[in-house]
Amino acid sequence: MELRKIAFLETYTLDNDAGIMGAILVTDADTKPLEFRVTAPIKPTNFQRTLYGDVLLEHILTELVSVPLLNAINEQIDLILVRDPLFLGVNEKQGVRVIRVSNEENGHVKGTKSAAEILPSSNGSPKILLETSKRFESELAEIKSNLASVAEHRNLIEPFDRLKVACEQVHLQKTGE
Question: I need a surface site. Which of 18, 47, 64, 66 has the fewest CB within 10 A?
């Protein structure tokens, strides 16, 4: 698998309980932007909170953020990087591998059923923990190898920071602030 196009998938929780926005940034292997998409704010009702209970956030991230954003992008992507472990459920919905990346100090999330690998740092950024769901765990070593070549010269966490700022800017434009 050659990594030509990587998608970074993230959410942004709006202030004052105004909802959750989802965003996807598709980049080339140098993390230069190729495509950006964002959802409208998603604000569950009290009734939805009651019906979904503990699985509400997973439902929002998988069904209302991930699937629509992945269907909306025009670029053919090779890999999807996420920070929230709830996004790993997207692996069951489509065929592009979803990999959770986190700083080594954040560690493995307890209770997740995923395989993990450590991506060493050579550019001064922190070591990265890679995780995926059981469906793609056999491919994790190959994915690690491919991401290592990107991580040699790019910080794989930094595009998520760009996504947060972009979501803030989109929200401010829509609210007229």
Answer: 47
